[in-house]
Write a structure and sequence with these properties.
107 residues; four-stranded antiparallel β-sheet; 4 strands; globular; Dabb; Dimeric_a/b-barrel
Length: 107
C-alpha cells in the first residue's frame, strides 16, 4: 500500500533565504538517495491563505518500509540535524495514498 507523508515547517523569524535554499538542496539530495519514493515535492508556501506554514513536503512512498528507510536514512538525519535550528514548528501526517476520500465523522 502506498503511503503519503506530508510535513510542514514554520521557520524561526529572520531565517535567511539562502538557508531555505540550502534546505531545498538538502531535501533534493535526500530524495535522490532513497529508494521507494514514488513522488516527492517540496517548496515554500505560496501565501495564498493566511495562517499557513512556511514550507511543505508532500511525498508518496511505495510502502511503509520505504517510508521507514527514508526516515532513518543518514542523509535525512543529516538534513534534520543541519536545519533543525531554523524550524520553529513542524507537523507531519501519514496516510494511505491512492485511495478514495474517506469520510471522517462528517455528514
Amino acid at each position: 500500500m502506498p503511503v503519503a507523508h506530508v510535513v510542514t515547517f514554520t521557520f524561526v523569524p529572520g531565517t535567511p533565504p539562502e538557508t531555505i535554499a540550502a534546505l531545498s538542496d538538502g531535501l533534493r539530495a535526500v530524495s535522490a538517495a532513497c529508494t521507494g519514493i514514488e513522488s516527492y515535492h517540496h517548496g515554500g508556501d505560496l501565501g495564498l491563505r493566511p495562517g499557513t506554514a512556511d514550507y511543505a513536503i508532500a511525498a508518496v512512498f511505495s510502502d511503509r518500509d520505504a517510508l521507514a528507510r527514508y526516515l532513518t536514512h543518514p542523509e535525512h538525519l543529516r538534513v534534520n540535524a543541519d536545519f533543525g535550528p531554523i524550524i520553529a514548528a513542524k507537523s507531519s501526517a501519514q496516510f494511505a495514498a491512492g485511495h478514495q476520500e474517506q469520510k471522517v465523522g462528517r455528514p
